[in-house]
């Protein structure tokens, strides 16, 4: 009798047989039915809903679900080596000009903008009444030919923001294809900073330009990572604060997140609230903000952590 019972249990566990079992499996990953004889008060539909809810909770706790530029969905295991945040984004307040996060003690986060020649001439005295910080583009590398150019409004923006008393940082739009080109971009930034005092880091802005002829299209994850580290390491070696900016897709699919997360992170996701599990210093939440003193749309940012 004991041998027969053991056989039944093994058949149930392995899914080979159903004799004496309360559930029937149809293969790994396939739908199954479950008897509710011993789960009084629950229907199969309710059990299925609970199962689906538990699955979603598990996935969001363990994986990033990311769609690439071709529409393919990827499941990326969340790294155990990077600190997760504990922010409760139900504490976001969207009633003002900027979003803000209300901490438990009632304090608010710092708010800021990032600008380039695309914003044209800016009335920085007006802007100063609304922001706690600003990042100004110093330059960029072309996504096809690869030439490095200065932002057309860099000098005017640096002078205007400084005169208005706004704490500033700078950023560079990178299309480097190697560690060496990353170093080249960083050295260009360092050579063109001028005498301005920076309260915020020098930021590497890496993104997929989403163009068929972009010079970075065929890079591997390791090549993207090395191009980023070439810039960041060079800025750090010069005694400056280095930071990386990009979006959810790029952080997830293009770089080794463990390597780039040794630097402070500026995270872009245009959403009511971010669904990124890791800590990040700054969240860029829209590209269509409105700030008096700036004609047209501008990126808005919320500083979630101190930047070391």
Q: Can you put this structure into words, describing what you see?
A:
- α5 (179-191) runs parallel beside α6 (221-237).
- The longest helix has 19 residues, at 44-62.
- The strands form 4 sheets. The chain has an 8-stranded mixed barrel.
- The protein is built from 8 helices and 15 strands.
- 31% of the residues are buried.
- Helix content is 28%, strand content 23%.
- Mean pLDDT is 89; it is low at 1-27.
Features:
308 residues; alpha/beta; eight-stranded mixed barrel; two-stranded antiparallel ribbon; 8 helices; 15 strands; disordered N terminus
Quick recap:
The protein is an alpha/beta fold and 308 residues long. The protein has eight helices and 15 strands.
SSE order and pairing:
Layout (H helix, E strand, L loop, with lengths): L1 H13 L8 E2 L8 E2 L9 H19 E5 L5 E5 L14 E2 L6 E2 L8 E6 L8 H4 L5 E9 L6 E3 L3 H10 L4 E7 L4 H13 L10 E5 L14 H17 L4 E6 H6 L3 H4 L4 E4 L13 E8 L8 E6 L5
Helix pairs in contact: 5-6
- State the shape: globular
Strand neighbour order, sheet with most strands: 7-8-10-11-12-13-14-15
Q: How many beta-strand segments? A: 15
Q: How is the biggest beta sheet arranged?
A: 8 strands, mixed, barrel
Report the helical percentage.
25-40%
Total count of helical runs of at least 4 residues:
8
Q: Could you spell the SSE succession in H and E letters?
A: HEEHEEEEEHEEHEHEHEHHEEE
Distance between the termini: 68 Å
Poorly predicted runs are: 1-27
Share in β-strands: 15-25%
**Gyration radius, to the nearest Å?**
25 Å
The residue-averaged pLDDT reads 89
The computed structural class is alpha/beta
